[in-house]
Task: structure prediction
Amino acid sequence: MKKVLAILLASSLVLAACSSKSDNGTEDSNSNDGGTASKETKEVTVWAWDPNFNIAALNLAKEAYATKNPDAKINIEENAQADIVQKLNTGLNSGTTKGLPNIVLIEDYRAQSFLQAYPDAFYDLSSIINASDFADYKIGPTSFDGKQYGVPFDSGVTGLYVRTDYLEQAGYKAADLQNIDWNKLIEIGKAIKEKTGKDLLTQDPNDLGLIRMMIQSAGSWYTKEDGTTPNLVDNAELKAAAETYKTLMEANIVKVTSDWSQFVGGFNSGDVAAVPTGNWITASVKAEAAQSGKWAIVPFPSLPGAAKATHASNLGGSSWYVLNTDGKEAAADFLKQTFASDVDLYQKLNQQIGAIGTLKAAATGEACQAADDYFNGQKIATDFAAWTEQIPRVNYGMHTYAIEDLLAVEMQSYLGGKALDKALADAQSQAETQIK
Result:
């Protein structure tokens, strides 16, 4: 997926996304059939969202698979992420898989909510893929109860995109931003604002993606290691992130936005000097051709005072899952020969859609070693691949968005003057009450 993640709540199916569904699927009257496929015909139906990223990736995988499996039929259906979550929950809750696909793309933050709620609904891929072939942090969301259910796909590895021309006007170079913490970045942001009048970055107050990136960079999450118990009030990393966030917001260097178009417009228009987010934003940055040569990407700033602070984090990312229905073997074979092992495919994914995969072997491919002229010859794919391996592994659990809904309200209260300990305690209490 690649866009800034909205604050969504999978458990209540309250989501915000839109796209259209293709009509190239087939139907089957057997309620136990995964929507279309059968082992004999090698017909497989796949659901995913985002035509420019995930659907494009599927089409490349389909082409690669066809070279060795010319008789296979891969049906690709575009659905909004919201629709996928709702249809999966509706179908699996009802006990029927009629109308569902053989393969489905699920966001990593949501994966456990499906695997734990419907333990028999997904096909065990433990014998199909080698989990150690992928970035370590992706294995947590894609496995359950000792079994591997997902084929890890794209990395949401983060970086700090910076305007080098604005930096230079403020007396800095990109090299000065290597391995800094957020306090230093805020200091630099103030200098940029003073010299250029430009804000450091954009921020949607209702989107806590920045907090999410900060705490994962320090090996922490909203829940304890079990992925279920809320971990807010005594979470040192979350407290440090909240304090840093408030310092940032009060420094007069943030351009407040409210949606995706304003977020992209902030850097495409030249209003901000930096973009801390997932690598999937690269295409949107490069969409403004006039800014070629004016950008660099440096490591994500570390969280001040965090005991396990690193310069690597994640925002977004998703993986492929096979439903445990007729056609599962054909579906698993498609994934095995493509996203689970095909290094050449990942080179094309990187070259054509800018995807950074989490298959370790793909990081050494030619495309991932290429210089990017837009970023002054920086080998950005190489850097992102290296940072992917450093992302701290945390347990996203089942309730990321549910907790964020509660935390977002308390964060605004904190910015408005409420004591942080009180705000986190109130969020903790609400989470313990609402999340069972």
Q: What stands out?
A: Residues 1-39 have pLDDT under 50 and may be disordered. The CA atoms of residues 71 and 123 lie 23 Å apart. The chain is about 35% helix and 10% strand.
